[in-house]
Amino acid sequence: MKSLNTSLEEGFLLLGFSDWPHLEPVFFAFISVFYSLTLFGNTVIIILSRLDVRLHTPMYYFLCHLSFLDLCYTASTVPQLLVNLSGLDRTITFARCVAQLCIVLSLGGTECVLLVAMAIDRYAAVCRPLHYTTIMHPLLCRALVIFSWVGGLVNSLIQTSLVMAMPLCGHQLNHFFCELPVLLKLACEDTRGTEANLFVARVIILVCPLVLILGSYAHIARAVLNIKSMAGRRKAFGTCASHLIVVTLFYGSAISTYLQPVHRYSEREGKFLALFYTIVTPMLNPLIYTLRNKDVKGALWKVLGRGTDSK
Fold it and tell me: What is the pLDDT of residue 10?
């Protein structure tokens, strides 16, 4: 208990990218730009989804929540990373570390389930177009979103409590935020039992949603192949392509980080992988959905046109 009490009093030192001090100014510049683009892009999508009536559909309702998730996710890690890179403060208190871990896991878990809701929406649009409005009723959409947030929070509380129940030795975290595998490496005791419990929690929040998404797209692929016209196939595929790209980016990085044993986790590689799913992916999501989407681009031009007229 001595080591745990010491951690409670002194907190942790986040090493971040201090191994490459000559690259820290470069990281700071690029991450600042990426963070600004993330804030701008996701905020624009939320505003457009509220202002344009054409975007008051289940698809954009879920997309609006995905953008809000990305804003929260980056806000929970990036500002601290920028402070770390500037060299002003590399420390984090124990309480802030626990809160950050819980928030990051909660938002990540919520996105896992929310992507399932978006897959259900695409399944209904492609495979059951005549019953789409009946299936994707506003009450169901709200229920799916609430379930996503609650499911992510509950899973996060379980994982956070399992990790923080262990005594921790040392105060240096070789990362730029309180990442779960890095905290496990500080454990003073055998982590195999905790890792087994964590693995079950991760399978529930990561693998099960992914299986549901792949199952829905198996049905979508079958329905698309039954469409005789090439134009019809292209249109059906176009409605799902953006979601598929986001799923690939998100699950690829999440599985690489959270579904491998702790002894195989490389802190050096993990930091760069974390940059991808905390900064790059949230920045790319608005671009992925807008570049391939005529409705969003139309809504944007409509708002800009109004702004020009009002002048």
Answer: 67
